[in-house]
Give the backbone structure.
Amino acid sequence: MIELLAFPGMEKLAGGIAAKIRCNVQYVDLHHFPDGETLVTIPPIPEEAEVAIIATLLGPDQLALPLRFAAQTLRQMGSSKVGLIAPYLAYMRQDKRFLPGQAVSAPLFADFLSDSFDWLVTVDPHLHRIGALSEVFKIPTSRVATAPLIANWISTNVSDAIVLGPDSESQQWVAEVARLANKPYEVLQKQRSGDRSVKISVPENPELFTRQPVILDDIASSGRTMIEAIRRLRDMQAKAPIGVLIHAIFAGDAYADILAAGALSIVTTDTIPHESNAISVAGQIADAIGSISQSA
Ligand code: R5P
C-alpha cells in the first residue's frame, strides 16, 4: 500500500489521486526561516511503507533541497521506497549548451532527482531534443499523456473546434488531440527573438473563419506565444479563441494578459494548481503510480 505525501499546494490533486487508488494522503510541512532556509517536517508514516511524494516543480530552485531532504528523511524513517509524482517537471527544456559555459540543466536536474527518488511519474514533460525520459533519468519513469483528456474536453465543450498549435514544436500534441477529438487542426508559425519577444503568423485556412479556434500549447510562461496567436487570429476577424494549456505556469501577469488579449477563455489541466484548471489528471496519475510502483 502506497502512502501519498503532498507538498504544500498539492492538496486537491493529491486528494483526487488518493480517492482513485484508495490510499492515505498526508502533508509535508515546510517552515521557511527568515534567512531563506527551510525546515522540512514529515508526518508519521508506517515503517517500511512505500511513499509517493507529490510536488509540482514550478519554482524548482526553491523546491529542490526540500524534496531531497524529504526523501532522505523518509528513508531514515524506514520507508521501503520513495517515489516522486511531479505533475509539472521543470528544467527539461534546457537540453543543449547554446553558448560555452552554459549548464545543460535537463540531465543535471534529472541526475539530482534520480539520486533522491526511486521512481518518477510526470505529465507531458517538455522534451525537445531529448527523445525519452529514460535518456536522462537513471530511475524508472512514467510519462502521463494528456492528449486523451484534452481531446475529450474539446469534444464535450467545443463541437465546432479547429485545434491550433502556435508553433512547429506543438505539432506533436495538436495532431494527436485533433485526431482523438475528430476535429481539424492547423499549425501556426512562430519566431522567437527573446524571452518576451515572439512573432506569430497564421496560414490561410477558410475553416479559421467558420470554426471556434482552440489554441493548444504545453505551457504559457511569459504568455507571449498565446497572446500573439490570439492577436493574429483577432486581427483576421476569427472568433475569440479558447486557449488550452497543459501546464498553467503563467509567469507574472501572463494569465491576465492572455485574457486581455482577447481569449474567450483559458482552460488548463491541474498539473499546476490555478483558477483555470478544468481538466484533471488525477485518474491518469493514479494508473501510472499503480504500474510504476510494482516495477521499480
Ligand atoms: C515552446 O516551445 C513552448 O511550447 C511554448 O510555446 C512556450 O514555451 C511558451 O512560452 P511563452 O509563454 O513565454 O511564450
The two ends are 14 Å apart (CA to CA). Residues 144 and 284 are 6 Å apart (CA to CA). The chain has a mean pLDDT of 96.
